[in-house]
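Page 47, continued from p. 46.
Same chain as before, 461 aa.
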Amino acid sequence: MDWVKRRPDGVESPYWPVGPFKMRLPVIHYKWEWLDYIQGLVMCAVCLSIIPMLQDTLGMPFEVALAIVVLNGLLYCMHAWLGDPVVPGWVTPAIPLLIAYCSTFPAGVERMHALIAFEFTLGIWCLFLGITGLANRVIQAIPHAIKAGVILGAGIGAINLVFQKGGRFDMFPWTITICIGLAFFMMYSSKFKEWAQHHVIAKTLSNLGILPAILLAVVVAPIVGESAWPQVEWGISQPDFGALWTDWVPWGALGWPSVELYLKSIPMVLASYIVIFGDAVQCQGIIRDAQHERPDDPVDYNPNRTHLIVGIRNSIMSIFGPDISMCGPIWAAMTVVTYERWKKGRESMDSIIGGVGAFRFGTLTGYFLLPIVSIVKPILAVAMASTMLIQGFVSVYVGIRESRSLKDLGIAGVVGGVLLVKGAAFGFGAGIIMCLLVYGLNFFKGDVDSAPIWADQNARV
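Result:
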């Protein structure tokens, strides 16, 4: 702990080297960030919002679905433990694709077998890329136009989930408008940043990310008649691991999927992986854009290490708690929120590992606290919509910045549009065809004739 306090500027937080991982424990290797922990306690509402999807798609009881959320929450902590400097989350844009895929199988055992086979195959694929070291090469080999299009399409897809007919905006139009408006104003407004430099209250609010917007939703929704007032319950929640590990796992009553289902899941795995590598690119973009403001805290993001952790998480979940949210490399909205506070300086957050680690410990704690769960339960849809809209905002600007020329940007628009309408696999295929038609033999290099459209691209990989 004393070493952490004396960490010299320009030096990474200490760690225990474990193969490709950098093992870090709170307090021992990095300072505990209470603001991020408290934010995590409330933002567990977003993680809990997957429960209705598990109930509707798989027919799970609430307590069984809660057990899956808790297990996933424990595995979230692996990223900070093993040196990955992001807030991990779902493979969000692929969730509708996976629901549609699972729904092609009869409800019950067959549908669960399809989910188990898919998630296990996805985990093994990510492990393979991480172990062989091909993950970084795969990401670097993908043309910038295709990477930009995948990220752009995923961002617009996240926004579409909120505003599509019958979506969350139709359920909470006023609450979402007011609360996401507050969140965007506090996170991205130059005027609010100016206030935060001169006023204590504004500075405190800016350090809380989107937590004030979520808390505001608890009050606004009942006032405008879009939800009931929360009924506060006391005690500890009771996830039903007994039923989960008896009736919903392959080593229980379900049995193991057939080999045919593992093979049948491969196209869905590849489609989901397109989103995962897009998330990995997004991680790099967020860190690259933020790092220059904090040279005192070098951030080591390694796509191969990320793939290993994501592969381990998906493999474990497929066996101990099959989950349609999947295990992705980043929760974009909260990663941005955490990095925005980190960029304000060491007095705001000593190290990024401390911020992302404390946040995920906070969400894990929140799952067990009934007062928190009961307070946020009426506005789970608002919490989901807020993180989707912020993720959409971030994905769009990161995706556009990934383009190195106007031709790249045009191809990215086509890729993103096809991905949104026809799915990730079609979007990726459209990108390959467009790059071949436009760039020919320069398929991997991209536009070699035009000047970069961003001032800093000459220095970028």
